Amino acid sequence: MDYPSNGKEKPEKAILNAAIEAARIGGEVLLTHLNRVQLYAVEQKGEFDYATEVDHASEKAIIEYIHARFPEHRILAEEGGELDGAGIYRWVIDPLDGTTNYIHGVRIFGVSIAVMRGDIPVVGVVHDPVRGETFSAAMGHGAYLNGAPIEVSRHEKMNECLLATGFPFRCKELIDPYLESFKRFFRQARDIRRMGSASIDLAYLAAGRFDGFWELRLSRWDIAAGVLLVREAGGEVSGFLPGEDFWQTGNIVASNGRIHELLVNELNDIFAGKL
């Protein structure tokens, strides 16, 4: 059990444990089909945005598990959309984050599950089925990897930092300012990685593997679990611009906190008036 005991029962305890199990159930579906994904139809949801039969199968298994335990909870799922409920909790599910990787046999993908009250994530789980890594967090209780506590890195100098990013495939009209941001950070940082799965990027940041991350126009299911992981691991998350609500825009910058001001200042300088 990844949730630390403090002697008091809280509803998020049962929710977190269920989210961990649901993510692992979805991950089993992904692994089962991984070696024959080329046989399945690929659905184009938008330009350069895809889903497979496996996305739907993973999501179905996750939702069935959640509904059996919390029938009153609301659900927002990437493929199935919004499912109404009467409770205060809303599950936000990405059954396969890294679909393009998955389609091409690149084994960097995961299942991302968050539970939110309003715009506040109170439970977050990112599960990497290939590596058997489950990152989890509950608000106010820290972040964990397979039950062991994790925290963000302590790097303060950019030349010590490994950054992560995602290419803006949903908004290619912003490729020029994006490439300017890449160029500026590449000149300052130790190196930059592009994993192809935002939830994995954020989980790695929470675990201290990455020091900073930025990406444009992400969806709530891409980031909800990762945002909580980063914050509970001691990191910081914001939009690109002052006062920007990243839940609405999807423009997100996350860091270990120590380099956050530098990242945001550069992004604000580049993207002001362009977003």
Give the tags.
275 residues, alpha+beta, Fructose-1,6-Bisphosphatase, Chain A, domain 1, 2 domains, 5-stranded mixed β-sheet, 8 helices, 15 strands
Brief rundown of the structure:
With 275 residues, the protein is of the alpha+beta class. It has 8 helices and 15 strands. 45% of the residues are buried.
Structural topology:
Layout: H1 11-33, E1 42-46, E2 49-52, H2 53-69, E3 74-77, E4 81-83, E5 90-97, H3 99-103, E6 110-117, E7 120-128, E8 133-138, E9 143-145, E10 148-150, E11 162-165, H4 175-188, E12 191-193, H5 198-206, E13 212-215, H6 220-232, E14 236-238, H7 246-249, E15 252-255, H8 260-271
Parallel strand pairs: 3-5, 11-12, 11-13
Antiparallel strand pairs: 1-2, 3-4, 5-6, 6-7, 7-8, 8-9, 9-10, 13-15, 14-15
Helix pairs in contact: 1-2, 4-8, 5-6
Straight-line distance between termini = 42 Å
Tell me which CATH architecture of the largest domain applies here. Answer: 2-Layer Sandwich
Helix percent band: 25-40%
Query: Mean pLDDT score, rounded?
Result: 91
Order of helix and strand elements from N to C terminus: HEEHEEEHEEEEEEHEHEHEHEH
Which structural class is indicated by helix and strand composition? alpha+beta
Number of domains: 2
CATH superfamily of the largest domain: Fructose-1,6-Bisphosphatase, subunit A, domain 1
Radius of gyration, CA atoms, in whole angstroms = 18 Å
The CATH topology of the largest domain corresponds to Fructose-1,6-Bisphosphatase, Chain A, domain 1
Strand order of the largest sheet: 4-3-5-6-7-8-9-10
